[in-house]
């Protein structure tokens, strides 16, 4: 039997950086394991959420009726943008009083979580290693790299999309009543009367289940896929510096290439960070707006 192939240093580097600091002490082996808690994702997502709440509180506290400062003007621009989008999608004014602030919070929260990807790949691990909080295998047991990007952890985007799904159910039941919501599951999108309605009801239910599942999965997977790809590309760019072990012309060229490639990708990645946050916010508004409407 052939001996197992050795893992290359490049593959080991990437695998090491993709491991979470969790409650098991080793990388998660299966895609779905409800017993695993990624402490790093929980910490950084909650930290960015608190930062968003603090910034909005600070903006509200410093708001003046006169000429606004730069901070207030920036916050007002974002608030007006989100409010305009909410008005055009969610036509129920009572619901919009909650949904518009929710969309604003989601946009800023996802933006800040995504922005963590701009921190140099090896910096968080180095800092936590200096503090003795993380590291590689050693004689005292396994400790793993601290992964800083929450939206590249599938649990975070999917958790947020599940929250949007639950809110869709809530507004669907609130607007249409429980009986009307359940009735619509069996009578739409194929409308009929009499025996035909009974015959089509299982297909309507199946299509509605597929629709809700597709919305939820696509909402979370879109954010996860884009941020995971961006994180992986930063790691590949960081590998360019792995060959920089001296001061030869080739190594200097690799180092300069790493800095240039990383800077160019970071500048482009800023657009992805904002775009993915905007898309997640808009789809949240669309799905909650659809919950107020009938087929």
From TrEMBL:
Q: Does the keyword Iron apply?
A: no
Q: Which domain of life is it from?
A: Bacteria
Q: What UniProt keywords apply to this chain's record, in alphabetical order?
A: ATP synthesis, Cell membrane, CF(0), Hydrogen ion transport, Ion transport, Membrane, Transmembrane, Transmembrane helix, Transport
SUPFAM superfamilies from the xrefs? F1F0 ATP synthase subunit A
Q: What is its main location?
A: membrane
This entry's Gene Ontology molecular function terms read: proton-transporting ATP synthase activity, rotational mechanism
GO cellular component annotations of the record: plasma membrane; proton-transporting ATP synthase complex
Subcellular location(s): the record lists: Cell membrane; Membrane
What HAMAP family does UniProt report for this protein, alphabetically? ATP_synth_a_bact
Q: What does this protein do?
A: Key component of the proton channel; it plays a direct role in the translocation of protons across the membrane.
Annotated family: Belongs to the ATPase A chain family.
Query: What is the name of the protein in this document?
Result: ATP synthase subunit a
Origin species: Advenella kashmirensis W13003
Gene responsible for this protein: atpB
